[in-house]
């Protein structure tokens, strides 16, 4: 029964990993085939290829190494924590152009609220760890 449950979980993780990657691949193929795309130089190609390879390797480690060993609540908090760094970087480089200043202020306030919500979601992890002692 446990082996069957692990197999089902593994398949679900595979689907959750493969579907977005497949959609990205189809979009990239569509752009290359249907739009005019210039061929990049070898150095640019190697930089992008190496970064994407490291990115996919990290995702595989996350999906197949880390997340299956966690309970569902900690897994949700971990995936939320992954998005915290880009949220901080977005706040530090907020250069969107809006027609009115109140739109810019509203967007900045909403970004701060989202960042606070992401950071606040990390506190239950400490409570859960404290409760296990």
Write a structural description:
This protein is mainly alpha-helical and 133 residues long. It has a domain at 71-133. The protein contains 6 helices and no strands. The relative contact order is 0.07.
Task: List its traits.
single chain; 133 residues; mainly alpha; flat
Condensed summary:
This protein is mostly helical and 133 residues long. It contains six helices and no strands. It has a domain at 71-133.
Number of helices: 6
In total, the number of strands is: 0
Average of per-residue pLDDT values: 82
Query: Over the alpha carbons, how many angstroms does the gyration radius reach?
Result: 20 Å
Strand content: under 5%
Regions with little confidence, pLDDT below 50 for 5+ residues: none
Shape: flat
Helix content: over 70%
Structural class of the helix and strand makeup?
Answer: mainly alpha
- The SSE order reads HHHHHH
- Kindly, what is the distance between the CA atoms of the first and last residues, rounded to a whole number of angstroms? 30 Å
Largest sheet, strands/sense/barrel:
none
How is the topology of this model organized?
Blueprint: H1 2-34, H2 42-66, H3 72-82, H4 84-92, H5 101-120, H6 123-132
Helix pairs in contact: 1-2, 4-5
């Amino acid at each position: 029964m446990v082996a069957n449950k692990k197999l089902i979980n593994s398949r679900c993780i595979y689907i959750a990993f493969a579907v977005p990657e497949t959609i990205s691949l189809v979009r990239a193929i569509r752009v290359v085939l249907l739009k005019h795309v210039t061929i990049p130089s070898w150095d640019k190609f190697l930089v992008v290829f190496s970064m994407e390879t490291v990115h996919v390797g990290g995702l595989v480690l996350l999906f197949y190494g880390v997340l299956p060993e966690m309970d569902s609540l900690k897994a949700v908090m971990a995936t939320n924590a992954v998005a915290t760094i880009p949220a901080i970087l977005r706040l530090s480089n907020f250069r969107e152009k809006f027609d009115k200043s109140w739109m810019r202020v509203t967007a900045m306030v909403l970004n701060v609220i989202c960042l606070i919500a992401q950071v606040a979601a990390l506190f239950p992890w400490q409570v859960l760890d404290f409760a296990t002692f």
